[in-house]
Structure formats: structure tokens, C-alpha cells
TrEMBL record:
This is Uncharacterized protein. It comes from Pseudonocardia alni subsp. carboxydivorans. It comes from the Bacteria.
């Protein structure tokens, strides 16, 4: 698996794990709300990396 493929897989899995973290709403948000979203996104991506490292693979074809 290449770095590009792994990165795409991490992003797809992270979006499944926490879709709210990737919700790009149009209405204005406070700095606290933006920070919460960024933190959730980083957490989802880290969980996805750990799952992939533990052997998780996607059964879907992109």
C-alpha cells in the first residue's frame, strides 16, 4: 500500500468514524466550535490510522 493510498483510506475511514468532524457547514462558527471540529477530526484520523495498522482493510472499491 502506498502512502497516497493509505492517506486516502485513513480519510475515508475517519469520515465514517466521525462524520460530524468533517461537516463543513456554511454558517459562521466560534473559534471554540472550530477547535472542537479540528480536534474531533484529528482524533478520528488517529483512530483510523490505528485500525489500519492493526490490520483493518476496506471491502469497498473506491
Amino acid at each position: 500500500m502506498t502512502a497516497d493510498t493509505t492517506g486516502e483510506l485513513v480519510d475515508r475511514l475517519a469520515r465514517v468514524l466521525d462524520p460530524v468532524a468533517f461537516d463543513d457547514r456554511a454558517e459562521p462558527r466560534t473559534l471554540g466550535q472550530l477547535w472542537d471540529q479540528v480536534s474531533r477530526r484529528m482524533t478520528a484520523q488517529e483512530h483510523a490510522r490505528r485500525a489500519i495498522a492493526a490490520g483493518w482493510t476496506s471491502t469497498e472499491t473506491p
